[in-house]
C-alpha cells in the first residue's frame, strides 16, 4: 500500500514459469505464478493470486512467445515421459535416506557419548548421552522415516511430459508444484544412486540448467525422475541427451593404494586422539581397540576406487564417482565452459590428477560438473586436449546447423 513497483521482463530472459499451490490455494482455486530469469535462478516476478486456469494460460503464453510462435491450445496432449506409480513412490520413501544428516548424528553421539564429554555439556544430558550408540541408532531411524515422508509428500503424483522444446513436471501432495525445464538450457544430466537405492536397483535422474535449479533455487537441483529402475533411468536420460552405451574406464590401481594410505592415516589419528583422552582423563581404558577400524580400510578403499570412472565418445564426456551416493554425470561437449587438470601434492607422488569439466550450471552442493578423479596424469592431459578439440568442433557444427535452419517468419 505504501509503495508500488513495476517491472518489465523480456520474454527471452524468462527461463522458467513455475506454478505453486498449497492446500488453501487449491481450495480457493488460485495459484502463484513464479517467473524465473536466467540471472542465477532469481524469482523476477510473482503473481500470487491468479486463478488456476489463468496460471496455466500464462505458462503456455510465455512458452510460445519465447519461441516466437502463435499461442498453442493448452488442451493439446503432451508426450508423457514418466509417471510415478504407487510402488515407485513407496520405494522412494524407503530409499530417501539423508546420509549427510546420518553422519552428523553419528558423530554427535560418538563424540558426546563419552562420559567426560557428556558431563561437560550437562550432568543430566550425560545420563542420556552415555547411551550414545543406542540413541544414535534411534535417531538414524527417525531421520530415515522423516526423510522418506518428506520425499513422498514432495513427489506425490509426479508426472513428467515433453512439451514442444521443454520438459514440464508436476508433483506434490499438500504443496502442488508445476514447473518447466527448457531443453535448450540443460547443461548436465546426473543419475544418482544412493547405497540403499542402488542395492535394490533404483536411482534418480537430476537435471541442471544454466544458472538455475528449477523449483528449488540455487542450493539444489530438481529431480527430473525422482525414482526409477536403473535401466529405465538411462533410457529416459537418452530421450534428453542421445548418448550411447557407456563403458567406464577406472583410475589406475595405484589410486586405490592412495586411498588405503589416506584412510590408514585417519584411523591412526583417531586412535591417537583416543589414547590422548585416556592419558588425560583415565577413561577409555580400551582406547587401543580403535585399531580394529583398520580392518575396514581395505574394503573402503576398494569401494571408493571401484565406483570411480570416466568415458568419452564423439559427443559426450561422462564421469562417475561416489559410494554412499554414486553420481553419473553426462556433459555434452557443446555445453563445456572450461576444462582443467589439477594435482595435489599427494597425487603428484603417484602420477595422478583430477580432470574437471566445468559447465554454466548453477553448482550448489552437488554441482553439475564432470569430475574424473585420480586418473593417470598423462591420460588426464590427453583427455583435456580431446575434450577441448571436440568442444570446438561441436560448437562449429551447431553454429553451422543454426545458419542452415529456417528462422521464424521466413
TrEMBL record:
Keywords, comma-separated and alphabetical: Membrane, Transmembrane, Transmembrane helix
Origin superkingdom: Archaea
Residues in the signal sequence: none
InterPro entries according to UniProt: YdbS-like_PH (IPR005182)
Key word Transmembrane helix present: yes
Transmembrane segments annotated in the record for this chain: 99-118, 130-153, 260-281, 287-306
Pfam families the record matches: bPH_2
Residues covered by the YdbS-like PH domain: 3-61, 155-214, 305-387
The name this protein goes by in its record: PH domain-containing protein
The organism of origin for this protein: Halovenus salina
Amino acid at each position: 500500500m505504501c509503495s508500488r513497483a513495476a517491472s518489465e521482463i523480456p520474454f527471452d530472459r524468462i527461463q522458467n514459469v513455475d506454478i505453486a499451490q498449497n492446500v488453501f490455494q487449491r481450495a480457493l482455486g488460485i495459484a502463484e505464478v513464479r517467473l524465473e530469469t536466467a540471472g542465477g535462478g532469481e524469482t523476477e516476478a510473482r503473481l500470487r493470486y491468479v486463478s488456476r486456469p489463468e496460471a496455466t494460460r500464462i505458462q503456455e503464453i510465455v512458452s510460445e512467445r519465447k519461441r516466437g510462435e502463435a499461442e498453442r491450445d493448452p488442451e493439446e496432449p503432451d508426450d508423457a515421459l514418466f509417471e510415478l506409480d504407487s510402488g515407485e513412490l513407496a520405494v522412494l520413501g524407503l530409499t530417501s535416506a539423508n546420509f549427510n544428516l546420518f553422519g552428523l548424528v553419528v558423530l554427535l553421539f560418538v563424540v558426546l557419548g563419552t562420559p567426560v564429554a557428556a558431563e561437560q555439556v550437562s550432568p543430566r544430558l550425560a545420563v542420556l548421552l552415555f547411551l550414545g550408540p543406542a540413541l544414535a541408532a534411534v535417531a538414524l531411524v527417525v531421520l530415515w522415516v522423516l526423510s522418506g515422508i518428506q520425499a513422498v509428500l514432495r513427489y506425490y503424483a509426479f508426472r513428467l511430459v515433453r512439451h514442444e522444446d521443454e520438459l514440464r513436471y508436476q508433483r506434490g501432495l499438500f504443496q502442488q508444484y508445476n514447473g518447466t525445464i527448457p531443453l535448450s538450457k540443460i547443461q548436465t544430466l546426473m543419475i544418482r544412486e544412493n547405497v540403499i537405492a542402488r542395492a535394490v536397483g533404483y536411482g534418480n535422474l537430476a537435471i541442471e540448467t544454466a544458472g538455475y535449479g528449477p523449483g528449488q533455487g540455487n542450493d539444489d537441483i530438481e529431480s527430473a525422475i525422482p525414482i526409477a529402475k536403473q535401466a529405465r533411468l538411462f533410457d529416459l536420460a537418452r530421450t534428453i541427451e542421445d548418448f550411447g552405451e557407456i563403458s567406464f574406464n577406472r583410475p589406475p590401481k595405484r589410486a586405490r593404494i592412495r586411498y588405503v594410505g589416506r584412510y590408514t592415516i585417519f584411523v591412526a589419528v583417531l586412535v591417537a586422539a583416543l589414547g590422548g583422552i585416556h592419558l588425560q582423563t583415565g577413561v577409555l581404558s580400551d582406547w587401543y581397540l580403535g585399531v580394529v577400524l583398520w580392518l575396514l580400510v581395505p574394503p573402503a578403499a576398494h569401494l571408493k576406487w571401484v565406483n570411480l570412472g570416466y568415458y568419452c565418445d564423439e559427443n559426450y564426456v561422462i564421469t562417475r564417482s561416489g559410494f554412499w551416493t554414486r553420481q553419473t554425470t553426462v556433459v555434452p561437449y557443446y555445453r563445456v565452459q572450461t576444462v582443467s587438470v589439477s594435482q595435489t601434492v599427494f597425487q603428484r607422488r603417484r602420477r595422478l590428477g583430477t580432470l574437471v569439466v566445468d559447465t554454466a550450471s548453477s553448482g550448489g552442493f552437488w554441482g553439475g560438473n564432470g569430475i574424473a578423479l585420480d586418473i593417470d596424469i598423462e591420460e588426464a592431459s590427453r583427455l583435456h586436449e580431446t575434450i577441448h578439440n571436440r568442444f570446438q568442433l561441436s560448437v562449429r557444427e551447431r553454429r553451422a546447423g543454426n545458419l542452415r535452419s529456417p528462422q521464424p517468419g521466413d
